[in-house]
Specification:
289 residues; 13 helices; single chain; 45% helix; alpha/beta; binds S-adenosylmethionine
């Protein structure tokens, strides 16, 4: 068993786009503080009372509605994590789904879950970075990126590729944590808290202001359908994760010594900035006029 410091050598940390130091950890760690679907992105807290598990299911229906998913829709999820979105869309919407991420253990976990859920005929995954993976162009009705574009150094390349994957009229959903504006990035991007989250947790990440994402999708030729502010939803999600880390701290540290404290620091840093330095947005775009 290695500790957090041992597994994060400085040379590895500084490689742009390398995030497997976090996402390729034992999937059971994430099962101890995420919801049962292991969705590692914002839920949707629009009814009360609401649990973390319910908020994540609400969010997945929200995404499916925005993408106008129907039975047989072909969906590509970029940065698929432990398969929360692809397995849900295959099961609930009869969608034919493809997930991609560079973290091999996520794919082992997804394969096991797809078999348990009886959806292996509709689910495929690819291990690799979206930027250089071989995927069939113009063959998807929808492309999603929930919390993954922050890990892609070239935002224009990522968005151009997303559009290249879509049929005409297909939809692109991207949700991400953003700096509140360019001035907030200039002021906070190199602060200790931001550097801790970037280097000691993820290995690499480049948070941008929303304006940069909007410019990238416009330049790629997308038509913007809408922007949703999910800042309060992500704050609530992280509050729920923090509670679960606290409850499961011993079990998390058993799998990886020091991880509970590191997760707590990361999540507290994230929740300190909402509305002041950071915001969380969903952007929905169409490959058409
Ligand atoms: C914050 S997690 C979000 C996972 C998932 N979308 C969810 O909502 O649970 C970010 C995901 O992006 C993946 N990722 C990181 N860099 C990537 C890249 N260059 N191409 C594709 N996926 C990437 C990570 O392995 C991880 O699965």
């Amino acid at each position: 068993m290695s500790t957090i410091a041992e597994a994060s050598p400085a040379a590895e940390r500084t490689q742009p786009g390398q995030t497997n130091q976090h996402y390729d950890l034992d999937p059971e760690i994430f099962g101890l503080f995420l919801d049962p679907l292991r969705k590692y992105s914002s839920g949707l807290y629009r009814t009360e009372p609401i649990t973390l598990a319910q908020a994540q299911v609400a969010k997945l229906h929200f995404v499916a509605d925005l993408l106008r998913l129907t039975p047989g829709s072909r969906l590509l999820d970029v940065g698929c994590g432990w398969g929360s979105l692809i397995l849900f869309m295959a099961r609930e919407y009869d969608a034919r789904v493809t997930g991609i991420s560079p973290a091999g253990r996520q794919h082992e976990y997804i394969a096991t879950r797809a078999a348990q859920l009886g959806v292996i005929d509709r689910v495929t995954t690819t291990v690799g970075r979206f930027e250089d993976a071989t995927l069939p162009e113009r063959s998807f009705d929808a492309v999603t990126m929930l919390g993954s574009i922050v890990h892609m150094p070239d935002v224009d390349l990522a968005v151009r590729r997303a559009r290249a994957m879509l049929r005409r009229g297909g939809r692109y959903y991207v949700s991400e944590t953003c700096f509140r504006n360019a001035a907030a990035r200039d002021e906070f991007d190199r602060r200790a808290g931001t550097e801790f989250v970037r280097n000691s947790i993820f290995g690499w990440g480049d948070m941008r202001p929303l304006s940069e994402l909007v410019r990238a999708v416009e330049d790629a030729g997308f038509s913007v359908d809408g922007v949703e502010d999910l800042t309060e939803d992500y704050r609530r999600t992280i509050e729920d994760w923090l509670l679960r880390v606290e409850e499961s701290a011993a079990a998390i540290d058993e799998l990886r010594p020091g991880m509970a404290a590191a997760l707590t620091r990361y999540l507290e840093v994230a929740n300190a900035g909402w509305g002041f330095t950071t915001k969380h947005y969903a952007l929905v775009c169409r490959n058409g006029r």
